[in-house]
Amino acid sequence: MKRPDTLVKSVVFVVALVYSITIYLSGSELDSAIIKILSFLPTLAVMLLILWDYLALKLPIVRKFMNRPRFDGLWKFSLTPTAESHIPEGGNKGPIPGYMIVKQTFWSLHVTQFTEESASESIAYTWRRSEEGGPVKLSYIYRNKPKAKHLSRSHPSDGSSSIEFRSMSPKVLESTYFTDRYTQGDIELAFLTRDSEFGSYKECIEAENRQSTV
């Protein structure tokens, strides 16, 4: 599922810009230069909101004040199913290595997960804090699609995962997951890079190798 936030921001910006230009060009009907300047305030306001969305989480003071951790980037993970998980015959009982790609702004978040056998995309998420001073918790729902050669034993599924953040800029995280294939387990995450422009398991491996040589 593609995220609508980029399209929405673009449409709002274009509408505000068209409105501002229309008001400005009707200057012959306006009484002063001040009104012309004020006509561009809607566009300026939209631009500031967009900048805030993309830049706010890069500022430590904002993360601390808003209780919103910075999670974007490429993460390496190790997934370990519990002994009670219904792993099909021939399936991987773990630990399963993989990569998590997180694209995050102040008002949006999208998680992509790659393993050697499948890929997952988040479809919904929520941030919450259970108590004052407690960890910030991210919960998200995702849809998993195995590669074609594994479909005979591993079917598409939906799952959910929860991550607790005790730091506003973590480098190591732990999470749990559960799927409708009656599998569950733990995930250990290690941060690699803020870059998030990767589209495959292979590209993630190459990015990790580049990091190790830096």
Describe the structure in your own words.
The chain is elongated, with a radius of gyration of 22 Å. With 214 residues, the chain is an alpha+beta fold. An eight-stranded antiparallel beta barrel has the order 1-2-3-4-5-6-7-8. It has two domains: 5-58; 73-213, Lipocalin (Beta Barrel). The chain starts with a helix and ends with a helix. A hairpin with a 4-residue loop joins strand 2 (96-104) and strand 3 (109-115). The mean pLDDT is 84. Helices cover 29% and strands 35% of the residues.
Descriptors:
alpha+beta; Lipocalin; 2 domains; eight-stranded antiparallel barrel; 5 helices; 29% helix
Task: Please render the helix and strand layout as text.
Elements: H1 5-25, H2 33-38, H3 41-55, H4 60-66, E1 73-81, E2 96-104, E3 109-115, E4 118-129, E5 136-146, E6 157-165, E7 172-179, E8 184-193, H5 201-213
Antiparallel strand pairs: 1-2, 1-8, 2-3, 3-4, 4-5, 5-6, 6-7, 7-8
Number of strands: 8
- Give the count of structural domains: 2
Class of the largest domain in CATH? Mainly Beta
CATH topology annotation of the largest domain: Lipocalin
Structural class: alpha+beta
- The percentage helix is 25-40%
CATH architecture of the largest domain: Beta Barrel
The major pleated sheet works out as: 8 strands, antiparallel, barrel
Q: How would you write the strand order of the largest sheet?
A: 1-2-3-4-5-6-7-8
Shape: elongated
Could you name the ranges where pLDDT drops below 50 across 5 or more consecutive residues?
none
Terminus-to-terminus distance: 35 Å
Counted by DSSP, the helix tally is 5
Radius of gyration, whole Å: 22 Å
Helix-strand pattern: HHHHEEEEEEEEH
Report strand %: 35-45%
Mean pLDDT: 84
